[in-house]
Structures are given as C-alpha cells and as structure tokens.
Amino acid sequence: MIFLVDASVYVFRAWHSVLPDMRDRDGNPAHAVFGFARFLGDLIERVRPTYMAVAFDQRRAGSYRNRIYPPYKANRERAPADLALQFEHCRELCRRLGVAVFVDPDYEADDIIGTLAALMRRQGVRSAFITRDKDLAQLVRDGDLFWDFGAREQFGYHDIERHFGVRPERFADYLALTGDEVDNIPGVPGIGHRTAACLMRSFSSLDELYGDLARVAHLKLRGAGTLGARLSEHRESVYLARRLTRIACDLSLEVAAPGLRRRLPDMPALSDLYDRLGFGPFLRRQGERLAHLPAL
User: Fold this and answer.
1) Cα separation of 131 and 140, whole Å?
2) Residues 101, 259 contacting (CB under 8 angstroms)
3) Are residues 155 and 191 both part of a single domain?
4) Which of 33, 147, 165, 169 has a CA-to-CA distance to 93 between 20 and 30 Å?
C-alpha cells in the first residue's frame, strides 16, 4: 500500500492549532512546520510505510481549473508570507525524512494524488489517502483507505457511501450538483447534500440523470415535481462544475513504484534543518527512531 498525504490539510491544521511562538533563526514563525513534522513522524512511526508520497498545492493564476473557470477559488485570500515560507520548509522536511515530494504549478495536490494512485493501482499497489478533504473520496476503490490521521477516522470503499451518502465513483457528480462555497464552485440552487445524494443513488451519473429528467418528479424528494426543471435550467453550470470537481488522474508524472519507496532519514541534513528552525530534542529523537525503522 502507498500512503498518499494531502499536505496542505495538515500544514493548515498545525498553523491553527500549534502556539505561534516558535521562531526560526531569522525570527520567522515555524510552528506550522513543527506541527506538520510531528504529524508526519507519527504517521511514519505508526504505519511504517514501504511506499509514501506527499503532495503540496502551489496556487498560481492561470492554473488548470482557473483556465476552465476564472472565479475558481477567487474568494480565498492568499496565504500570509510567513506561512508560505513554512510550506517551503515542510517540503524540505519531507525530502530530508526520505519521503517523495510532489508539487505542480498547474494542478492541485488532489490531482497529483489521483495520478499517483492511478499509476500505483496499475502496478498492483493499493492506496491510503491521508486527508480530511472529502473531495478525495472520489478516488477510493476496493482495497483503498480514506484516513484523516489526525481524527483517527478510516473509511474503506464500502464505508464512503455510508459516511458521505454517495459512492466514490459518483462523488464528482454529487459535488457538481451541490457546488462548493469554499472553492467558489456554483451548484444548482436549492440542491443540498441530501437531495444530491438521493439523485446519485437513483442515477448512476450526471449523464444518466440528464438523460431521464422526467423520472426525477417520481422520486421521494421534497419539491421533486419542480426539481427536473431546475436541473434543466442549470445544466450548463452543472457540467462546468463537474470539470472542476473531478480530480485529474492523468498528469504527466514519470514515476514507478521504486521511486516512491520511503527512504531512511538523512539525519545530518535533518538536524541542520531543525537547527535553523530552532526545534529542540523531541523531533530529533523521533528522527533517530525513524532512521532505524524498517518498513512493514
């Protein structure tokens, strides 16, 4: 199994949860790096992965989804400069811990993770998606794992529908119907999560739904009689939204399973990084343990 880590989720979690009084040699905040280092070290100690990769977001104007829909994520403020610097340190940390790091200026971490999962699946390797972002649930297939490590929640393929209300294969369609305020993706007005989940249990895809809108009126849904007309009115925006919600799994990543094997930490380089960041003995001791930790 390969453990695919959605880094931004855990960097932001550390940014908000660790006391911001940690400073590096130059006086810059370092608390998000410390929290992320603890998370990643704890994860490696617990699962002892043979294969592992960490994907980071690198937002820029003119990226893949912004070319499709310029307002995509336009409602988000840019990360503060000191947090952007901490993201750089987190990428350096991963490399010095012996973990493969991926970032792409055109695509998001979700797309990198989706592509890596697809590549490894073709080589007979299942995936554990380490994230709290529900969007990645669409990638889960039989034998895979969706795991918010911080919350200790684990879901297999058959758990996704019980937890989120929709099967993984229909998740992008479901999100296209509801929209996503966080990412500034428009949905169908009046369609919430329950209605969208019901539609995706009744139809196998958006294509099947739009091929038989008359059947919507007979579903056991509040307002079912007018729902078909509303879906028809917003058809174009729904299909646009699906282009945004569907994770790309076909990036040009030239990597095979051996390139994703976790290596042992480079302890001199790791200690140098911790010196620059002003970290004490706790993470160094963990690094020493990881240096002697074989994969399962």
Assistant:
1) 12
2) no
3) no
4) 147
